[in-house]
Amino acid sequence: MENPPSGSPEQGELFPDPLLGAGLDGMPDQLVGFRGPTACQVVGITYRQLDYWARTGLVVPSIRGAAGSGSQRLYSFKDVLVLKIVKRLLDAGVSLQNIRVAVEHLRRRGIRDLAGITDGPVLAELEADDTKGMYKESRELAKLGKDVVVRLPLKPEGMRVARLLAQDQVAVCASECFSAAQALIAAKANVSYVAPAVGALDDVGTIGMDLVEQVIRVYDNYGFQTQIVVADARNPIHVLDASLMGADVAALPAFVIEQLFRHPLADELRAARPS
Fold this sequence. Notes:
Elements: H1 29-32, E1 34-35, H2 36-43, H3 47-55, E2 74-75, H4 77-91, H5 96-117, E3 122-124, H6 131-142, E4 148-153, H7 156-167, E5 172-177, H8 180-188, E6 193-196, H9 198-203, H10 208-222, E7 227-230, H11 236-245, E8 249-250, H12 254-260, H13 264-272
Parallel strand pairs: 3-4, 4-5, 5-6, 6-7, 7-8
Antiparallel strand pairs: 1-2
C-alpha cells in the first residue's frame, strides 16, 4: 500500500480490512479496486472533488495513492462507501469542515463505540469460515458491546457455532435463509434472529415474502422466540407485506426508505401547488 501524497495527513480506515494490500501485485486494477474516474461515476462527484478530498486527507484511497506522473489512485469498496457518505452529507447542506470532523470522529470510534451509541442491535460480520474460527471470532466480537449480534451462515458449521454461542448468551443472526426448513433449523439452534433473503428469492422466480409468511406460521406453531428479519428488501411492497404479516425486523437500504415517502398523488399535489 502506498502512502498518500506528500503533505496530506494519513487516513485511518473506518472499516479496517486486513486483506487490503495482500497479494495484489500483478492483478488488474479493476479486480482490486476502483480507479478515480470509476469512483467518481459511482458516487456522483467530479474528479476535481475527488482529487481535493484525497489531497486534503478527507478520503484517501486505501489501496493505492497517486505517486508521481502516470500513476492512478485506487479506491477500495469501503473507500467508495465513505465517499458516498461525504456526498450525501454535502447534499444535505452540511459544511465540508463539519463533514471532516464527523469522518475523523467515526474513524476513531469503530465498532466498539458504535455498539455503545446505538439504541439497537449492531450486526457484526465474521471473517472466519471454519467452526473453530467462527466461534473464537464471535466471542471476541461479543465483548465489544451488549448489543452486538453475530452474523452466521445458515449451514451446518454456522449452526453448530450458534448452539455454542447460545449457551454463552451471545446473540446470533442466521443469514441467507431460503426455506422454511432452514428457518426451523435456525430456531432449534436457538439463534436470536433469522434472515429470509426475500430479494434473492424474487430474483430466481419465487415470491420471497411467501417464505416470510411460512416462517411466521412455523414459529407461531411451536412458540419459537427467534425474531424474523426481512433481509434484502428492495421495494415498499416488501416493507408493507412484512408489516402486514407481522415480521419483527426489516433490513432496509436507503433507497427503499426514500421510496416509502413517495406516492404519485402526493407528487401531483406538490407540483400543483403555487410556488
